[in-house]
Amino acid sequence: MVNIAVLGYGVVGSGVVEVIKKNRHSIGTRAGEEIKVKKVLDIRDFTDCPDAELMTKDAEEVFKDDSISILVETIGGTKFAYDFTRRALSSGKSVVTSNKELVATHGPELLKMARDNNVSYLFEASVGGGIPIVRPLNQCLAANEIIGIAGILNGTTNYILTSMRKEGKDFGEALKDAQEKGYAEADPSSDIDGVDACRKIAILSSISYNEFVDANRIYTEGIREITLEDMQYAKEMDSKIKLLAISRRYGENIFARVTPVIVNNSGQLANVEGVFNAIIVRGNAIGDAMFYGRGAGKLPTASAVVADVIDIVKHVESNSNNVWKIMNENNIVNIDETESEFFVRLKVKNHEGAEKLVKSLIGDVEKVVLQMDFAKDEYAFKTDVITEKSFKGFIKKLNQSDVIEKVANTIRFFEE
Amino acid sequence: MVNIAVLGYGVVGSGVVEVIKKNRHSIGTRAGEEIKVKKVLDIRDFTDCPDAELMTKDAEEVFKDDSISILVETIGGTKFAYDFTRRALSSGKSVVTSNKELVATHGPELLKMARDNNVSYLFEASVGGGIPIVRPLNQCLAANEIIGIAGILNGTTNYILTSMRKEGKDFGEALKDAQEKGYAEADPSSDIDGVDACRKIAILSSISYNEFVDANRIYTEGIREITLEDMQYAKEMDSKIKLLAISRRYGENIFARVTPVIVNNSGQLANVEGVFNAIIVRGNAIGDAMFYGRGAGKLPTASAVVADVIDIVKHVESNSNNVWKIMNENNIVNIDETESEFFVRLKVKNHEGAEKLVKSLIGDVEKVVLQMDFAKDEYAFKTDVITEKSFKGFIKKLNQSDVIEKVANTIRFFEE
């Protein structure tokens, strides 16, 4: 029998206890021996808690118990979680976590600490909730050089964008609805500003390229600026607007970004709706593979945590962590040097003048015409592939022009 | 350094040698040491072969070489492959294979032999080509009880169905096109009659339920009977026709079948087109997760083989095979006892009489009307959920009736 302790009895932590109880038999078969939750550490009081006999507020009860070999950290954040994880690893206990912030911030140090102490630090649940993605990248696709990743990594924003499009709610209403349904937090900024997706693509990139990609260096935009009008244009182009995290390897260099993009309906990612997540991985042997499922939620996420625990139990003698090298930060390509096609919506004072101006600045563009009232004073178009730097210059000139009232929005196209 | 040998220098075998050469550096990093192909066994002569110096026709050169610890079996079939695999496992060499027929036929014996000899028998590439599915089921979803699986597991038939629908080719033309493009073999029966998909769902079911599911006991239909007319009806119902392998756990019992089904366009599987495969796994904690990618092809399949090799190298001390129990065959539910909704197309002599007859036999049905010439003498409808046994009785009575010329086709609906 293997004893584990769960640190933090929130949604995921209590889910871990539940999954281990619920599937005790099959988990035992898979792991080769029984897995038992011996302690749950949380400073809060829980009344009527089904796991009352396991609860403790005293961290020493966990750390000083030599019969506990694996800790599940579902505290979140980088304060207590960081201290506890370091203490556990350095004292020879393996740690499993769903804490993306901690992995994205201190991953290289914690992975190295795990390796030095011959224990494991695993974090399947930190990306994609229940979707298996970390282990497939580490193991199943190990024979590939990973060339790129593209994913819908945040269920909250995907839910909001889906309900805007399907139900005609504007961003504010859709956010409120998501909060009422428990899909968005009271302070939703980490989700809607793309921070959560940014941490996740940082983790996936670090695994894929075996080199730490710092979340702070990833260009990130959220979905606050996306309007129903933008969605009408996307529909006209047989497309949808999605918040996508992408990452690419260019030789020695890496690029990653999180932005709303226009995805053609023929692509797999366009059909990923609501709270679902999906990740497309491109390898130099396998081509494209996609992993799809619930990106959050108590039991899906808990099942990913428990899968890591089972893995440690099965491979107790062979710690399989890779360590992420920290490379020169010049390896991270600046967004200004990358290229995209852009969708541009202008509110114009003078249609003919706007068309002429755009043509004089960047040549021919593909016009998108919408037969709707709001679009009457708009000139909307798709650019050719252009560098971000040139595009910024172009927008600056548009803003200075007399024939244009304002640039209503600009959105990148997703190029598969 | 770990030495391996490749048995069979066909598409997959030569792909394995290529992938190991191509990604030598990253494979070495992932595995922790270099992996080298020391011998390739094949009885054929290869002129101008880039791997000429590795080739041998003498199996003893492989088996008697103690420096070779892992064999890659890509021979196919159950004759030489079976003998070689047994010999390897019993002499302490691990075996990695893409041979679904062998795994589906002798899986329980070979897995037990591997465990008894403390080596591994891995077969990620036997299902879904390059798509990671075997390892995710065994490891990533290990915390779940798997309730069901549904998948497009055969790229040839999916290519044929896709080109019938998109290009209006009939079955024969689409098959010929697939053969010319190398997606179908000269003798295509194993693919188009569902045998290949049947073996694959047998393997996935055995892994999921940890109990051998015999391919011979799986009800299997192919796609020879699917016509362009059927596809028109499916389109009218906002759906597509796909060859789906499904498997469900009901308490102690298991059911599996391979049949063409009508899949609604809102479902993820409807958007899996051409040679792509996809597998939806339903677990009691994760809900639905989908795995999507190229289900065949030289490098994708080879990359799955090499991932297994890497896994063995990393975990050399802890063989992680599960053994499949062979249960009472009464555990396999007979198709007669299962339920579906059915689409039925009748060629009728008398519309009114046909409608009345159907209503008298099974009550109200949902009529599907097509405004096309061929449909003028047809009465097409969707039944409620009905057992297969009752449905067979119903069809028998229709065939005996005077008002009906013939039953043109019947196709099950896929219920997600």
Question: Pairing-aware structural class of the strands and helices of chain A?
Answer: alpha/beta
Please tell me what the overall shape of chain A is.
elongated
Largest inter-chain contact set: A-B, 57 and 57 residues
Query: Which consecutive residue ranges of chain A, at least 5 long each, have pLDDT under 50?
Result: none
Radius of gyration of chain A: 24 Å
Query: How far apart are the first and last residues' alpha carbons of chain A, in Å?
Result: 47 Å
Compute the average pLDDT of chain A. Answer: 94
Number of helices of chain A: 14
Q: Strand percentage of chain A, roughly?
A: 25-35%
Helical proportion of chain A, percent range: 25-40%
Oligomeric state, counting identical vs distinct chains: homodimer
Give the tally of β-strands of chain A: 18
Largest sheet of chain A: 10 strands, mixed
Overview of this protein structure:
- 2 copies of one chain form a homodimer.
- By secondary structure, the first copy, chain A, is an alpha/beta fold.
- In chain A, 37% of the residues lie in helices and 25% in strands.
- Chain A contains 14 helices and 18 strands.
- The longest helix of chain A is centred in the first third of the chain and has 17 residues, at 100-116.
- The model of chain A has no long low-confidence stretch (mean pLDDT 94).
- At the A-B interface, α1, α2, α6, β12 and α12 of A face α1, α2, α6, β12 and α12 of B.
- β12 (287-294) of chain A pairs antiparallel with β12 of chain B, so a sheet runs across the interface.
